[in-house]
Design goal:
By secondary structure, this protein is an alpha/beta fold. It is 20% helix and 25% strand. The protein has 3 helices and 4 strands, in the order αββαβαβ. The protein has a 4-stranded mixed sheet, with no helix packed on it. A hairpin with a 2-residue loop joins strand 1 and strand 2 (49-55). The longest helix is centred in the middle third of the chain and has 14 residues, at 69-82. The radius of gyration is 17 Å and the shape is elongated.
Length: 121
């Protein structure tokens, strides 16, 4: 397989127990240790509900988000299981204070996944 972050080819060690199981991995072990995802969660109140913001990284970066598909999958499954049918899911690259007033216009709760989170002024 090829690492989505560094571009190096790597191989997953297989054993008899895992020989016929498919495990899709997009990051090599070196990049997993060097560039971990720091998932942070916040809840911001709004007029009619809450905005649940989850960001994957502390700092801005140019990573291919497909390399972090396991973290995104965990967030998405947790969100789908906890949300109501009228709630909204939004995925954006960056959350800033310019976006929040527009999200306030949407009824019900909003689940927002972002790559990074700008600190509000």
């Amino acid at each position: 397989m090829k690492c989505y972050l560094c571009g190096k080819t790597f191989f997953e060690r297989r054993y008899i127990q895992t020989l016929f199981k498919v495990k899709v991995v997009f990051r090599c072990k070196s990049c997993e240790k060097k560039y971990p995802a720091y998932v942070t969660e916040q809840a911001i109140p709004k007029n009619s509900g809450l905005i649940y913001i989850t960001s994957l990284f502390k700092e801005e970066n140019n990573f291919n988000l497909l390399a972090y598909n396991q973290e995104i999958k965990k967030w998405f499954l947790k969100t789908i299981n906890s949300m109501n049918k009228d709630d909204t899911i939004i995925w954006v690259d960056e959350v800033s204070d310019v976006l929040i007033p527009y999200l306030d216009l949407i009824d019900n709760d909003i689940y927002l996944l972002s790559k990074t989170l700008k600190y509000f002024s």
